[in-house]
């Protein structure tokens, strides 16, 4: 089991910045990858950025050049630095981690943190 707790959301004006944090606990040594998703009201949850084995970071096209994902292994924490925020970045941001076992992939989710960007 992996527990994830996000923090750092809030209200910011367009063009501003926020940094989200996701602290992991539990069986963190079994985590194969970790990522950030977001869900706007009335829309499907979408991938924002993720880190998998080999420290490769993948970004969604709509955040490339604006968002940066990083991690601190000593703290079992990942971050999402969000710059040049736009109103369409508004949504609930979720941290996701996945492990694998003989039965397949197992996904774990945090409770989410609200990001609201005003115009």
What this model shows, in words?
The chain is mostly beta strands and 119 residues long. It is 0% helix and 59% strand. It has no helices and 11 strands. Strands 2, 4, 5, 6, 9, 10 and 11 form a 7-stranded mixed sheet that branches. The chain has a 4-stranded antiparallel sheet with strand order 1-3-8-7, with no helix packed on it. Strand 4 and strand 5 form a beta hairpin. The chain is globular. The mean pLDDT is 95.
Entry keywords:
single chain; mainly beta; seven-stranded mixed beta sheet; 119 residues; globular; four-stranded antiparallel beta sheet
Brief write-up:
The chain has 119 residues and is mainly β. It has strands at 2-7, 10-13, 18-26, 33-39, 46-51, 57-59, 67-72, 77-82, 91-101, 104-109, 113-118.
Layout of strands and helices, then pairs:
Elements: E1 2-7, E2 10-13, E3 18-26, E4 33-39, E5 46-51, E6 57-59, E7 67-72, E8 77-82, E9 91-101, E10 104-109, E11 113-118
Parallel strand pairs: 2-11
Antiparallel strand pairs: 1-3, 3-8, 4-5, 4-9, 5-6, 7-8, 9-10, 9-11
